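Sequence and structure are kept together here, with a separate record for every protein. An example record follows, reproduced without changes.
>
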Amino acid sequence: MKYMLLIYNRPGFLEELTEDERTALFGEVDAIMRELTESGELVGGQALADPAQTRTVRLRDGLPAVTDGPFLESREVFAGYIAVDCETPERAAEIAARWPDVRFGGAMEVRPIMDDAGTEM
């Protein structure tokens, strides 16, 4: 089963870290990605640009309206994702728990990815 691990973190937390702490954090991410690549569990993933570059589209009076930014009431922002193919949801949660952003006040959301038939719903 494939799982999307959604990465949420506090805006600016990286800037609060020392250069050594940032290097260590990125080293942990690299190690996890290498491990998942070697085990065949990695499907893909990407970091996202700063939320200030976000555009949100909603319907207003039946017409699409585009606004700047995500403007969600949250202390965390959606920062990226990693997609994995694991045997169990517990394994996906285990991977998410190891993600270093979690230690710095972030969160990882683990969501199953539906197959093309959508039979998981």
Strands lie at 2-9, 42-47, 55-60, 63-68, 77-85, 107-112. The chain has one domain: 2-112. The radius of gyration is 17 Å. The mean pLDDT is 87.
